[in-house]
Design goal:
The chain has one helix at residues 16-40, and strands spanning 55-62, 67-74. It is of the alpha+beta class and 75 residues long. It has a two-stranded antiparallel ribbon.
């Protein structure tokens, strides 16, 4: 906070404090604008689409000395 008295009753920031505060404020404003624009875009988002020829098989594996399972995937 500046002690020079040139701020007319307001808090004055100078030097590194001004850079830090302005960076945080503008970052928050940019984040808010980005969230708002993203909320306006409505479309289906497919993260993974199964290929037509792909298969997944799950089978138990049981024997005299073992118990488990087998998973086989082909694509």
């Amino acid at each position: 906070v500046s002690s020079s008295g040139n701020c007319d009753g307001y808090v004055c920031l100078e030097g590194p404090r001004w850079i830090l505060v302005s960076t945080l404020v503008m970052g928050a404003v940019g984040t808010g604008i980005g969230v708002g624009v993203d909320a306006l875009i409505h479309r289906e988002r497919v993260l993974y689409r199964k290929a037509p020829g792909s298969r997944t098989r799950v089978a138990p594996l049981v024997g005299p000395d073992r118990v488990g399972g087998v998973v086989a995937m082909t694509w």
